[in-house]
Design goal:
Elements: H1 12-65, H2 78-84, H3 91-101, E1 115-125, E2 130-143, E3 158-168, E4 171-172, E5 179-181, E6 190-195, E7 199-202, E8 206-208, E9 212-214, E10 220-223, E11 232-234, E12 249-250, E13 288-289, E14 292-294, E15 297-299, E16 303-306, E17 309-313, E18 317-319, E19 323-327, E20 329-333, E21 338-340, E22 345-349, E23 369-373, E24 380-383, E25 390-406, E26 413-427, E27 431-434, E28 442-443, E29 446-449
Parallel strand pairs: 5-8, 5-26, 6-9, 6-26, 7-10, 7-27, 8-11, 10-12, 13-16, 14-17, 15-18, 16-19, 17-20, 18-21, 19-22, 20-23, 22-25, 23-25, 24-25, 25-26, 26-27
Antiparallel strand pairs: 1-2, 2-3, 3-29, 4-28
Helix pairs in contact: 1-2, 1-3
Length: 451
Amino acid sequence: MIKKHLSSEKGQSTVLLALAFIVLLGFTALAVDGGLVYANRRHMQNAADAASLSGGSAAALYLENHDITYGSWDCNDPDVIDAMHSNPEGAKAVARSSGVANDYLLDDDDSDMHGVFAGCVQAYDNGAWIEKFIDVRVRITSDTPTAFAHLLYNGPLRNTVEAVTRVEPPTSVAMGNAIVALGPDCLSDGIEFDGTQDTIVTGGGIYSNSCLDTRGSGAVIIDDPENVGYDISCALPNCYTDHGGSGVVSPPPEEGLGRKIPPDTYDIPPPDCNNGWPNHGNYDNDGHLERGVYNEIRIQNGDHTMDSGLYCVNNGVTINGGSLIGTDVTFYLTGGDFDSSGNATIRLFGPPSETCGSPCTPNRAIPGVLIYLAAGQTGEVSLLGNEDSDYRGLVFAPDGTIEAGGTSSTMAAVHAQMIGKSVFVHGNTTIDITFDESKNFILPASLQLQK
């Protein structure tokens, strides 16, 4: 009888367990080292974001403290250069300090993917208006120490992250355009020029979120002596072609730009009219107005002067005759119209521009703002008056209509920025509209983390 020798299977489970252990060890190494790499990258990104934002904040503060605005922007200005670079208050120095605080030593050159860069853009034309800004870019590269991966791979586990903060300078409302229509509907909104003589706009552009009409025989001209490049533009396709009149428009309107004026560029904090100061009721025509709350202001004759400050009016302002003189004043209308007449002498000046917190200081006129029709109010602001009249400062009616103009015997100059849902300019004499950034509301410098 032949004996059969059966092979033994003893020890196979040991081999399987060893293989399983290797596989489990690999997964463990992947989990541990992958977690380390991920955690390190997250820390790096947080550090890059913090450094970029810190540098951007330093640049914004430096621009504000040195009165650098959208209108005065020049990349070759020493103050703009200092805002970016390595002086102790500049973007690069502050960004590097933030990096050190998070255990990353950064230099002034990020071309090796580890450092800080700050660059100035003089005039970036996005197709609707010129954008001017500083970009503060931080790149961080770091190798992650490994627990297991180095046993299988000799190279470094390297992460590189990037953060970019865009700093826009203090900017006049609506990107510095002199005349702006915010309404989006060509049927009821837009800008209309209807005069027999020329309308000349100096120191700013003309922009409509909807359409632009020139119904009169007078020309509409941008006077740009410093060759800044101000345009006459509207957002919708054929927004001028389908609505234009017989007058000359110079430069020719740019149509169909698509972009509407961003709401954050005309986000003006409303004043606080409920602060316990006196309510004067209806103005009683005594010749002198004190700042405060009024139910209505109505002037028909005689000479009237105003204290500087804020005037909150619930049911409108009417000026049919006589004279009204006020310096460093703001009218804030929560209802009614601002109705003026060519028979009156009206000389109203808002306070000089500066940034204003939210809300603005009670009782104080809003810097750079002359007339503010509260949001949701669909009334009209008319800027009329005789040849001795003048308006200076921002006239802002986000949901209302602004009318400016005159006849041969009335006011022919407006030193105001006009921003409304619709704007109507008319007259039988040449109308000069001058925009001066120093006399209009200035939005503070802004920061945006791009990536």
